[in-house]
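LOG
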Amino acid sequence: MVPSAAFARIALLLLLVSVPLLPTPARAQLPAAVDGQPLPSLAPMLKQVTPAVVNIQSRSVVRVRDPLMDDPFFRRFFGLPGTPRERVRQSLGSGVVVDAERGLVLTNNHVIEGADDISVTLADGRVLEAEYVGSDEDTDVALVRIPADDLSAIRLADTDAIQVGDFVVAVGNPFGLGQTVTSGIVSALGRSGLSGLGYQNFIQTDASINPGNSGGALVNLRGELIGINTAIFNPSGSRGGNIGIGFAIPANLARRVMQQLLTFGEVRRGSLGVEAQDLDAALAETLGIMDRRGALVTRVFENTPAATAGLRAGDVITAIDTQPILDRDALHNAEGLLPVDRDAQLTLTRDGREITLPVRLTTDSGRYAGGSLDARLAGASFSELPEKWRQQGATGVRIATVKDNSRAAALGLQPDDLLVAINRRPLDGLADLRRLGGRLPEQALLSIQRGRRVLPLLLQ
């Protein structure tokens, strides 16, 4: 008698022999179409886009000093050299080729900031050395150039036309993994108020953006660049992962910054030439403004775009072009993003009536010549602090430029020094310099901050 287990095995074998073998596909595939309709796919668009998105690696050498090494007795006693140690700092990010003929690549300032060497890895594996063209810390936009040999570029879209709900795709190099694509929608427009960043007018998206995506592309479904991915929001801090709140610099803003970097090597901003403050409940009621939105002008400086346009103290600025102005910070933000030498419309409330005034910012309206303050400072120019510096606690005004062989250069002033006080009276911005207007005393003590040190400079 055949055991039951053996009988079962024999029956299974006979069954397999009697059933004809069916062909098995090598791998599972989605059908090309369902009911005659092709399945939607981003693949054709991405084939055009991804060759233009690059990986960027920057390298900088940082000198590290030990306080004991600064003590000559300690060095002599132990026979140690006084040369500071060095360490190499590396940064990984992404970039976007926006001009194939000239080899221009847009990225974030924080990706290449302070770099001694910048290398770009293309999607086809080529590694190219990049030339630094310029950067703007306030908008976190930077521009580099690579050899223009068989490159692909992405066309920049007009971001004034995008809307909340538009589908978008983010392409970058998250965590150094290599080129990665994520999708989502435009979640909001005109975002600002992010800590640690300068002038802000961000596109918010829920397309997954992570460390390493910085400088990468945010594109629409036509494969046009609508933004440069730059930041994420996470309540858990820098160690937290993506939670679906990412921010990109609009392509229109990046385009304006790029044009100025190519032309001047820097971004030249203007200033309306006003002091302003937020509206509180009492002021809003007095001025007949029900929603307490706007920036109250408290002073208009002479020979500025605001004075030329006819602004007055007591006006409440509620919009610049089509952008609402909610408070003083919003005014400062919009002012810094206005292109120079182009007309804009100010909407304001005056004596209970809404009026509009045309205004044009000039290229040099954001600078104050040192010679206008005092002849002994001729050759230097002063500007407002970058917003990022203010958020980090810096005060005063920035020394923007110092001409070679000038009186300011002979005093030892350097670009990016901060003038923080005059005769121990703190400065809060260019408004304080304009208020002095060439009336420094014969002996004036300037407090100059350079790095972490404050240096006294006596004019006499």
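LOG (cont.) second protein
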Amino acid sequence: MVWLVLGRYKALRPSLLVFLLGTWLPVTRSAAQVFPIEEQLLAAQRYAVGAERAARLSERAAQKIADAVRAERRTVWLERTAEELRARGGREYLAARRGAELARRERTAVVTEARALTRAAVETFDRLLETPAALERAARGVPEELLSLSERVAETAARLRAAAVAGRDALLDLQAVHTRLELSRAQLTEARARRYEESLVRKQATLIDSLDRLVQAGEALTLAAEDLERATKVPQLRERLEPSRPPARRWGGGLGFAFNVDIGGKERVDTARIVEDAKSGGQVVRVDRAPTNIPRALAEVHYLFPINPSAKLVKGDPHKGTRSDSVRQNEEPVRARFPGDLAVGPFLGVQFGDDFVDAVGAGLMLGWRVDALFPRDQLQLGVGYFADPNTRVLGDGFAANHPPPAGETQVRYKEVTKSGVMVLITYGF
């Protein structure tokens, strides 16, 4: 009997597919960008799918519970038959005992599966009983044109929850029939077994009715959400619903890479040695210079000011041809959206390298929103001045490719502060 409700699912699944394609794809975005209408549509889609899953699991659980009741009754009958033939022995007793053992194994497997399916179905029902906040009432700040549709979605979700309560109770009542049979297995008689079977049939009918209402509520919720989603696609109305993009963060930080270009002074030195020069026949200083134009890891903090017009507030009437023709007095301001919010401001960076901290720099930075990995993440490009206080150079009197000072047999070094231009690119989140 529980399979009679399958026809409902055939009608529900196509509408769910349309809803998935029409609502899920445009809604999947970072949580910071989901505005109330999209949040309600997404919650409705998940709620309708949850109702279908609960009904499907309940059907399977009900079928297994019925199988478990029959397996219990068959096992008791075979066990008693084997006990009656025990005194006689022979092949009949061995066959009866073997049949009882197989029945017990079958009963154990069926009961285990029935309990697992029932537990999964009840857990799904429990999730349906926790109605998402977005479905408890109409979406916040919804335009008047969408208010009735949004309220319809909320009311249908309430109907679905009520159907879920009834379905959960009906499934637990059905499971209780099997539990009572298990507890009375030792005193089971044919008359009592028939009463359990009759009770099972009644509980199945109640469950079928509850699942039928649940599926109908899921269908109604899907249709209501589809109507609301179609209404939001009206171009003028969609413009009013678009969420404002908050400007790029002011205080922030980032990690990335920097390139340094030294300006003036002695060149960096890794190592140097005094060698014989084949051309002059004397000694000269040979150095290994440390390259300054290789990228190094950098961490920075910045304070940026928005420079694009994304923060400009505009007003307009969606029923007019142009936004500037009319302004309604009670209309909420809407932010105009521009791709890539830009901001500029100062930064302070610390560059890491061989000496852990190779340089400290400061300058001007340009940042723009990318929304790639996290809400409001951004890239920054900066140019500024750097100072490296622990730069190794040749000591006084020593010069690359020149003879060393008189009497010097080893190269001497000293540490100075080098400065120059720093170019960096970082990612902030």
